[in-house]
Design brief:
The complex is a heterodimer of chains A (about 140) and B (about 425).
Chain A (H helix, E strand, L loop, with lengths): L1 E9 L4 H11 L4 E8 L3 E8 L2 H10 L3 E11 L6 H11 L4 E8 L6 E7 L2 H10 L3 E2 L2 H4 L6
Antiparallel strand pairs in A: 1-3, 1-4, 2-3, 4-6, 4-7, 5-6
Chain B lengths: L3 H4 L3 H22 L1 H9 L21 H6 L13 E6 L9 E5 H17 L7 E4 L7 H13 L2 E3 L6 H10 L4 E4 L1 H13 L11 E5 L5 H11 L2 E8 L4 E7 L6 E3 L4 E6 L13 E7 L10 E7 L1 E2 L11 E2 L4 E2 L4 E3 L2 E3 L1 H9 L4 E12 L2 E10 L8 H19 L4 E5 L14 E3 L6
Parallel strand pairs in B: 3-4, 3-5, 5-6, 6-7, 18-21, 19-20
Antiparallel strand pairs in B: 1-2, 7-8, 8-9, 9-14, 10-11, 11-12, 12-15, 13-14, 16-17, 18-19
Helix pairs in contact in B: 2-3, 5-6, 7-8, 8-9, 10-11
Chain lengths: ~140, ~425
């Protein structure tokens, strides 16, 4: 499992830029960012280095941030790779809340971030089928403990 | 009790005192204030006709507009050389009204505010931070004089500069905080963001007023600050703070009836409502010299809390003011008080009790948007959870207010915090938006 920041943003000019500037000024690199938006607000999901430090930086500036644990899976690099993986979860009865994809840092391999209803069951299904699940340190620089 | 011989007076003695004072007050305004003389004459009423307190029902009312049209000093009942202080209403709606105080008025006001602080358990040993605004607003100086009269160490901070307020709260060992409830909430939030845990401070009592607030907000303030919070009531036209106050029983505000007569009337018919029923609060001052008011319609909505109070005070209690007849929003024909919205939000986990109501028009239909802050601890991630929260709030407001509203979730701390009275309603209905 890896940690993802979820940031609540009002649909206002400059909020996303402000958020990214704060993370950037703290010297924290972002590896993936997706926006889920509605008419009034959005939730920005971010995979970045030192997620807990990033959360602190954003909260001090008044952003609403939560840290969510999500699955990072390396998708087989061939046609139908993602479809296979999703069918596996579907057959196993695991509902996917959302999913997004980015390239693993320093390689050309695709990483899928999955938020599912039952993470334990999903992890078991995926690793049972030979999908490699990534640790935080393989995706970003985790916070020092 | 600060003045137990008065505050715990037997009812009969109190009524005799009230009647004597009422007759004197009516005679005084009839002789010295042209507006009252004209009103009384038009109504065929003569002060000497008053034989019992029930005869008050024959006396004409005074309204806010009377005070405004007498701007600035037209309703003063004392010569200007005897007036030693003036204050004015906050003037949020149109022209302000000016009130004047004689030396005797200031003396009595100090006593009544000392009573108020003592109602919450304050004594000369306390350190009182007065964070109500000083100036033309009655809050700051009103509490200040009462606190000095009580003998407490009085810190005249006034409003604003919130981080310095937190420093003083901590460094001066403040035990009593006097301000508006919305400002107390801002102070608590600011303290936490500065790394100061307000619960660990000696602070033990909050004396909050000047705007309507709810029982749920009391719970939140008591919890966040580690205090007992009491509601105090007053208005500049009647005197300022110190007209009525909760005691530590926290079940209604004792009206200081030796100085003020109060009535609860149906705002339409202006007939008295039965004890316990809601209506408009109407005050008659009994001892004011500078600017007495006779049957002044406050527009505040309250009711009498029946029965005796365990604290021993015999003064009757009015329930906390739940709204004002002129704050009342009429939305598609339904009467709504903004404080009802606050009460609903307090009961929902995941949202903060900060809100703003924006009224607009879509065609000829009124639209109501309630902007609500997502609580700082709400673990959102999925849009679905936020939508559920939004629906919960919408549903709760619809069932409590019987009016449907659009709920818009906004970021924490994005609704402007007020340092005085919170501005809860933005009405764009007449601005072509």
């Amino acid at each position: 499992m890896v940690e993802q920041l979820s940031v609540f943003l009002a649909n206002e000019h400059g909020r996303l830029a402000r958020m990214c500037r704060l993370v950037g000024d703290a010297g924290l690199n972002m590896h993936a960012l997706v926006v889920a938006d509605t008419a009034d607000y959005g939730v920005v999901r971010v995979i970045c280095d030192h997620p807990h430090s990033a959360r602190g930086v954003l909260e001090r500036d008044g952003f609403a941030v939560s840290v969510t644990r999500v699955i990072a899976a390396e998708v087989p690099d061939r046609p139908g790779g993602l479809a296979d993986m999703l069918e596996l979860l579907d057959t196993g009865g695991v509902n996917v809340e959302y999913l997004y994809c980015f390239l693993k840092p320093d390689s050309s391999r695709a990483v899928d971030i999955l938020r599912v209803e039952d993470a334990e069951k999903a992890s078991a299904l995926l690793s049972g089928a030979g999908v490699s699940l990534l640790h935080a340190s393989e995706v970003y620089q985790p916070d020092a403990v | 009790m600060f003045q137990p011989d008065l505050e715990a007076m037997p009812h009969e003695a109190l009524q005799a005192l009230q009647l004597a004072r009422l007759r004197a007050q009516l005679a005084r305004v009839y002789a010295s204030v042209p507006l009252y003389r004209r009103k009384f004459d038009e109504a065929g009423f003569r002060p000497e006709q008053v034989e019992t307190l029930a005869d008050l029902a024959n006396v004409p009312f005074t309204v806010k507009d009377d005070l405004r049209s007498a701007y600035p000093f037209g309703m003063f009942a004392a010569p200007l050389r005897d007036i030693i202080r003036v204050h004015s209403s906050s003037g949020t709606t149109g022209q302000v009204s000016v009130v004047g105080y004689t030396r005797g008025d200031i003396e009595r006001w100090s006593d009544l505010m000392a009573r108020t602080l003592a109602c919450g358990g304050a004594t000369a040993d306390d350190v009182v931070q007065v964070s109500y605004g000083y100036g033309l607003f009655t809050g700051g100086l009103g509490v200040h004089y009462g606190s000095e009269r009580l003998g407490a160490m009085t810190i005249p901070v006034s409003g604003g500069n919130t981080s310095r307020q937190v420093q003083i709260l901590r460094d001066f060992g403040v035990t009593v905080l006097a301000c508006t409830p919305s400002y107390a909430l801002l102070l608590a939030e600011t303290a936490v963001s500065m790394g100061v845990d307000p619960r660990s401070l000696p602070l033990r009592l909050g004396v909050f007023g000047a705007e309507p607030w709810s029982e749920a907000m009391r719970g939140q303030l008591e919890d966040a600050l580690g205090i007992t919070a009491i509601d105090i009531y007053g208005l500049s036209e009647v005197m300022g703070p110190g007209v009525a106050s909760e005691c530590v029983e926290k079940n209604g505000l004792h009206v200081f009836e030796d100085h003020f007569l109060f009535e609860i009337l149906d705002p339409e018919s202006m007939e008295p409502v039965p004890d316990g029923q809601q209506g408009e609060v109407v005050f008659t001052t009994l001892t004011k010299e500078g600017i007495p008011v006779i049957r002044y319609r406050t527009r505040d909505i309250s009711r009498i809390v029946p029965g005796d109070c365990a604290c021993g005070r015999t003064f009757r209690r009015m329930e906390r003011v739940t709204g004002r007849t002129d704050d009342m929003l009429i939305i598609r024909g339904v009467n709504v008080y903004p404080s009802q919205i606050e009460q609903v939000l307090m009961g929902i986990a995941g949202v903060a009790p900060h809100y703003q109501v924006v009224l607009g028009k879509r065609g000829s239909m009124d639209t109501v948007e309630v902007q609500v802050e997502v609580g700082p601890d709400f673990a959102f991630d999925e849009i679905r959870e936020l939508e559920t929260l939004q629906r919960t709030v919408t549903g709760a407001i619809a069932s409590a207010l019987a009016v449907s509203v659009d709920v818009r979730l906004v970021e924490p701390r994005s609704i402007q915090r007020s340092e005085g009275k919170a501005k809860r309603v933005v009405d764009l209905r007449n601005e072509g938006v």
